[in-house]
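User: Run a structure prediction on this.
Assistant: Running it now.
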Amino acid sequence: MLHSLSTIDFILLSGLGIIFLIQCYFYLSVFGKFAFYKAKPFVKTNNEPVSIIIAARNEYDNLQRSLPTILNQDYPEFEVIVINHCSWDASQQLLEDMQLQYPHLKVSQLREQEKYPTGKKFALTIGIKAAKYNQLLFTDADCEPASNQWLALMQSRLGANKEIVLGYSPFIKKGGFLNLFARFVSFITAIFYYSFALMGNTFMGVGRNLMYTKDLFFKHKGFANHQHIMSGDDDLFVNEAATASNVAIEINTDSFVFTEAKTTFDQYVRQKTRHMTTGKYYKPKHKQALGIFYASLFLFYSLVIVTLIVNIFVWPIVLVIYLLRLVIQYIVFYPSAVKLTCAPVLWYLPLLDILYLFYLVFFGTQSLFIRNTKVW
């Protein structure tokens, strides 16, 4: 077959081969860092006191359900600070009632001021300033730890030269394709930030399960450099404060923090539109690395389609390249999915991988035109 290929066929197949090699580099050399990472066993360390911080806005139902699991962590000394962020539901009364049962629950109430609206970063800053302890653990009101060892596991990674701990926050498995796709995106995101962290090139963390020190927060002047951006209290701060050596990861399943995925497409789009707009504020080296991977993913599928359109008879070569890439994906993704307890999503990998490309194109294009400067 090769001797009958035209010049354009050779160019397209060569281009596809080069993009395939770039993809292989990311899957094996980058994502492989996490896939084949063996975590050190959990060992109780110095058990330094910890302040858990939660910003909540109209979260009565979530607080009623999830807050007891946080307050009942198996840990010697900790406080839970809930910033009731301008809620107009019954959250404040609930929190005051819970304080009677849990003396280590502290509540800060913020009231809405029409002339001076405040965002989540302001609320978190209030909580951080009110924190009694240097070690800070963050989650959201709609999140529930997998066990009462969550705090102990996250704290065990902090100390020595480690000032940031990245945890995992999966979505609860439910029926429906949107839930499946949301869990897949969460899985891919975790592979990204865990792998880059293991390479000493941390670029983000997820605020639903994130730990860092109060000293580090004030060393970088808090959220001052991105206070005008609506989101980014987690990833933009980590992007700014992380170094090659001050970040640790925690992947014990008992340290996971579960949350509900959005149940409608409109809700999911609004959430991701807000989240995806922060990427353009990352450090140049991180934007470059992510951009190369996303571009290679786009070019891979584009070249597959264009090559087959130009000459359908090269399909055996294209199929071999596609299947080799798929095998490499499974080699890397399966051990990663086992670690993150989401292996079943890989049954749908060929479809989800293509949809992930459309997801990146859609939200990536949106982020170029949307200003993420409103408060919530």
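DSSP finds twelve helices and nine strands in the chain.
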